[in-house]
Amino acid sequence: MEGFPELSAVRMDTGCSGAGICNPDQLTQFHMPNPNLDKEELAKFEALAQRWWDREGEFKPLHDINALRLDFIDSHAELAGKKVLDIGCGGGILTEAMTRKGAEVTGIDLGRASLAVAQLHAKEQQLEIEYRLISAEELAGQEPESYDVVTCLEMLEHVPDPAAIVKACTRLLKPAGHAFFSTINRSPKSLLFAIVGAEYVLGLLPKGTHQYEKLIRPGELDRWIRQAGLHTAEITGMQYNPITKVYRLSSDPSVNYLVFASRP
């Protein structure tokens, strides 16, 4: 979106409407004594919040892979008419796309600035989306078994306890509900391509976006999924061709990968 306003110019509605954040005070309230967040990681995204909808800016890779992610989710979950939760929604890139597919979507995040941008953009697009400043764990305590689909994409590698997020996803899902995760493998190939290549050579992402030790192997994520009571139905890789600048799904999960899981 061209000419996106600075965050200081973003006005939060003080009345409660049918969608969005009803009161700006909600954006500063954490009820959990120790929320599952890394303050330094959160600060990195908050500093870039005004750039969420700049398709040529720091979040360009998320815009570029959004259609691929959306098609993967919709092919398994048939989003139309479903109640969906997008965990770690950021500025609402995936959230809006799922809404356009006909889903009733709630986006949650712990970044106040990102949520302000997401709410403003949804309002400009005339989309009915509820955005809330709340952790997945806290929402799971408030609204267990409430969602047909839960998504948590490009987020697990940025929190101290990713297994707790996976567990919260299980609690939030209705029986027979579907969960979708995406993250980056911790492998020599991902170090070369996702960090050195993407951040330091090609400049696809800001330097320091990812820390190698926080990346997650598919086997680790699958174990957390099984321990939480879900069943891993599919693990699919995502590959980027720097020559054609095209992303595609692949059978190789050695760098980026998507996971589809279901609750019995």
Report what the structure shows.
The protein is of the alpha/beta class. It has one domain (55-262): Rossmann fold (3-Layer(aba) Sandwich), CATH 3.40.50.150. The protein has eight helices and eight strands, in the order ααβαβαβαβαβααβββ. The model is unreliable at 1-32 (pLDDT under 50).
Class per helix and strand makeup: alpha/beta
List the total number of helices: 8
CATH superfamily: Vaccinia Virus protein VP39
Order of strands, widest sheet: 3-2-1-4-5-8-6-7
Instruction: Tell me the number of structural domains.
Output: 1
- Extract low-pLDDT stretches: 1-32
Tell me what the CATH architecture is. 3-Layer(aba) Sandwich
CATH topology: Rossmann fold
* Count of DSSP strands: 8
CATH class: Alpha Beta
Q: What is the global morphology?
A: globular
Distance between the termini: 41 Å
Oligomeric state as shown: single chain
Reading the helices and strands in chain order gives: HHEHEHEHEHEHHEEE
Instruction: Describe the largest sheet.
Output: 8 strands, mixed
Average pLDDT, all residues: 87
Radius of gyration: 17 Å
Helix content: 25-40%
What fraction of residues sit in β-strands? 15-25%
Topology (elements, then pairings):
Elements: H1 39-47, H2 60-77, E1 83-87, H3 93-100, E2 104-109, H4 112-124, E3 130-133, H5 136-142, E4 147-153, H6 162-172, E5 173-184, H7 188-201, H8 218-228, E6 231-241, E7 246-250, E8 256-262
Parallel strand pairs: 1-2, 1-4, 2-3, 4-5
Antiparallel strand pairs: 5-8, 6-7, 6-8
Helix pairs in contact: 2-3, 5-6, 6-8
